[in-house]
Amino acid sequence: ERRLNAPARAKRVAVLSGGVEGSDPVSEHQLLSRSLVRYRPDLVLVAINGSDINDVISRGGLDDRFDAAGAPRRGRAPWFDGLFARSRFVRAIAMSVFEYDWYLLRPGQREERAREAVVELERAIDAVRELGKKEGFETLVVLHPFHYQLHGDVHDHAELEPLARWLDERAVPW
Q1: What global pTM score does this model have?
Q2: DSSP string of 122-149?
Q3: Which residues contact 154 (CB under 8 A, 6 or more apart)?
């Protein structure tokens, strides 16, 4: 903010960090539309990393995560997710016998749910952009892979690549 407000600058810039650590664009849209638009931003950054795909897989998307009042709904996890979270024994049985992973997905479900999650992230970006048109702000998407995806032995940005292609195809600033 200090550098943005250098003396030669005609317009003062105020920076409001309204994001929530560990959140994702679906929750960010909810927060922005219900609370943060009253600050009348000129620019909104939508930051996305690989964990956002997992968040959407486990929490849901725009249509199924929140009720009409904005309260969170229960996700799509199996009935035993509470036991899975608290019991090593239940996790061992679920993972070794029934082949669930840490997200309580069965073999083959992860790839399908990841594709669905990317579509939900696209919808969330579109929702923020539409809100921006209505409220008078620009939207800039920031894709940031994790450190290990850039500097590890394997440069793996595969989770974000479909989203990057979609942004390019739609000419969304990023």
Answers
A1: 0.83
A2: HHHHHHHHHHHHHHT-EEEEEE---HHH
A3: none
